[in-house]
Amino acid sequence: MSVETTLPLAxxxxxxxVEALLNPTEAxxxxxxxxxxxxxxxxxxxxxxxxxxxxxxx
Length: 58
What we know:
Elements: H1 7-22, H2 34-49
């Protein structure tokens, strides 16, 4: 009767999973330049600093 252990295989797989979590690949996506970010920041600031809309009296 032979008993096979799968512990070394499971340990290697877990080590590969941990390594992948520690060194993730760069995600493909949209990268913005600093000028575009500055424009978006200024536009967002104007919206936040704008006076509130007048409410009807009644």
